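Notebook entry, structure prediction.
Reason for the run: the old model in the group folder had no record of what sequence produced it. Starting over properly, with the input documented here first.
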Amino acid sequence: MTEQKAKDLKAFYRYDADHPFASMYPLLAKQIVDDLGVTSGPCLDIGTGSGALLIELGKITGLELMGLDINPEARVLVSENARRHGLPEERIAFLQGDVHALPLPDGDIRLVVSRGSIPFWDDHATAFREIYRVLQPGGVAFVGGGFSRYQSKEEADRMRPDWVRKDNPEKRARWLHREFLEEALLDATVTNWRIIEGGYGTWVEMRKTSQASVTAGYGEGARHAMSDL
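New structure, fully documented this time:
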């Protein structure tokens, strides 16, 4: 990486009040906690970048935070942003790695989150399979792209890149299509999932059933694909 590219990357991932999504990340973190109810245990953010989502989750939960990024320079950026927000940098462990081969053992993570990395995945079925593999029984993943429904629709629309706002089908990423995601999830043999679509983005929620849920009748055989928004 050239020195100029490193400077540009650092500027782009500086998470402060001037960040273009500064008002969104706290609301998205609150939505995740409210909807999924996970406030403790290991949490992995895939494609963490600036660490913004982890930082906001760290402010309101006791989660054990881990950020994974393929770019090793992200380690410094995440630490700097954590300090900037008054979060002890030791709260966030950094892992360099790829979603297609997560450097974690089976059943290790209670909550997996990712906002914005999904367009860059090369093989979505493999990525979903890896995420599901590292989830603990009873664990949940929330991955995709977009904004929080706790924002106003007007604010979310202002934040959208131009190519999304124009809704040009030729420029829409393949992951935005429900059929593509459904096929990838089925290929990954993930058995408990839903797709959440609407004006605030496209998200995939995956749950690994625990023995308690199997006993209650929510077995591994059920596949769920629902539009909530």
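Summary: Residues 3-215 form a domain with the Rossmann fold fold (CATH 3.40.50.150).
The old model has been moved to the deprecated folder.
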